[in-house]
Amino acid sequence: MESKVSEGGLNVTLTIRLLMHGKEVGSIIGKVRMTFKHVFNAISGARINISEGNCPERIVTITGPTDAIFKAFAMIAYKFEEDITNSMSNSTATSKPPVTLRLVVPASQCGSLIGKGGSKIKEIRESTGAQVQVAGDMLPNSTERAVTISGTPDAIIQCVKQICVVMLESPPKGATIPYRPKPASTPVIFAGGQAYTIQGQYAIPHPDQLTKLHQLAMQQTPFTPLGQTTPAFPG
């Protein structure tokens, strides 16, 4: 999370990073990504960027003035609540699960967010009604932690506002190594000297060098055909 405060501190620009599963990203994007981004930018006043790559997790970066940031969070939180409501129509569950968002926050700021003896995070929970959990471990290959927020959309919006205040009052210390989700590892199968990866119901030729390595190995290994015996050498 980065901040830029102009004269008088009235115009504060924030950059907030969210960690989402692919399904959640698909929900807020809809069918056409560029259309969504333009609509999102126009309505909320914030800019959104979604990390690329074939990853189970994606980083969603939202940048803009504080009011636009809160409006953007409201759009996302209410969309997730709508998805939960729709999923319950075909479910036997009786209790409605809360909306859950995961912020990605520099580890050096998490101490201020938790507060002495957990006082600050307790205050945020009690004043907003949202559940807030700060991960004990840093995300892989980074200096950031996940902060999970759960509750109603209104509780989440109020919670994000209070977290933003804490982050602005306590800027990150030192360099931050951002978390970058790793691509999903897909199984590779060999058939007829060709490597394939499974995508959905189809086998797609693998683009890397695995095929060449497999072919080379087949050429170098003297396999004996089934049903035949190794010829005896005289002497």
UniProtKB/TrEMBL annotation:
InterPro entries from the UniProt entry = KH_dom (IPR004087), KH_dom_type_1 (IPR004088), KH_dom_type_1_sf (IPR036612)
Q: Does the keyword RNA-binding apply?
A: yes
**KW RNA-binding (keyword) present:** yes
Name the Pfam families for this protein: KH_1
Which SMART domains does UniProt cross-reference here?
Answer: KH (SM00322)
Q: Give residue ranges for domain K Homology.
A: 12-81, 97-168
UniProt organism field: Balearica regulorum gibbericeps (East African grey crowned-crane)
Q: Which domain of life is it from?
A: Eukaryota
PROSITE patterns in UniProt: KH_TYPE_1
A GO term for molecular function: RNA binding
Q: Which UniProt keywords apply?
A: Repeat, RNA-binding
This chain belongs to the protein called Poly(RC)-binding protein 3
